[in-house]
Amino acid sequence: MTSFTVNGMPLHYKLDMHTPLLWALRDASNLTGTKYGCGTGQCGACTVHIDGVAQRSCQVPIGSIEGTFVTTIEGLSGDRSHPVQQAWAEENVPQCGYCQSGMIMAAAALLAKVKDPTDDEIDQAITNLCRCGTYPRVRRAIHAAARAMVEQQAIASAPPPGIDPADAAQAVPALVAPVEKK
């Protein structure tokens, strides 16, 4: 059994310790915002934060992250108000949208470290692949989110409609259990 915290909830995973984090999140915790893309760590669709660092979850065995804090796209903000999410909507970044949750997570990790990144810094940090080629909009959105974070102002765009994140993340009880307090 492996224990770590996902989106603020301490959990015990009753899975083989070699199970990729991607599958623990998607199959055991029903956190399907983290996408399977290539399975080789190249595309970035599965990007999550592990202790604040953007990581490709398809390449991380759950046994290697005992005691860490994992944040998925569902945990980035409960109401989709994170500046990166708001900038993505404002700049109409998604086309097909499949890669976007991984890109948003990579961008949020970048902005947590670099308050006003240059285009070169964005290119170095955001190595996620987008088959639709939305890279110019991604850059604009990252710059807009950076401005909003520095100015501590919300971006005018409303969060996109959809399922309440609390309703979307229902764990599969046979595979994951909350940590019991002692």
From TrEMBL:
Annotated 2Fe-2S ferredoxin-type domain residues: 1-76
Keywords for this protein: 2Fe-2S, Iron, Iron-sulfur, Metal-binding, Oxidoreductase
PROSITE patterns assigned to the protein according to its UniProt record, in alphabetical order: 2FE2S_FER_1, 2FE2S_FER_2
Alphabetical list of Gene3D superfamilies matching this protein: 3.10.20.30, [2Fe-2S]-binding domain
Lineage top rank: taxon: Bacteria
Alphabetized Pfam families for the sequence: Fer2, Fer2_2
Coiled-coil ranges per UniProt: none
Regions that span the bilayer: none
Keyword flag Iron: yes
Alphabetized InterPro entries for the sequence: 2Fe-2S-bd, 2Fe-2S-bd_dom_sf, 2Fe-2S_ferredoxin-like_sf, 2Fe-2S_ferredoxin-type, 2Fe2S_fd_BS, Beta-grasp_dom_sf, Diverse_Oxidoreductases
PANTHER family assigned: BLR6218 PROTEIN, OXIDOREDUCTASE WITH IRON-SULFUR SUBUNIT
Name by which UniProt lists this protein: (2Fe-2S)-binding protein
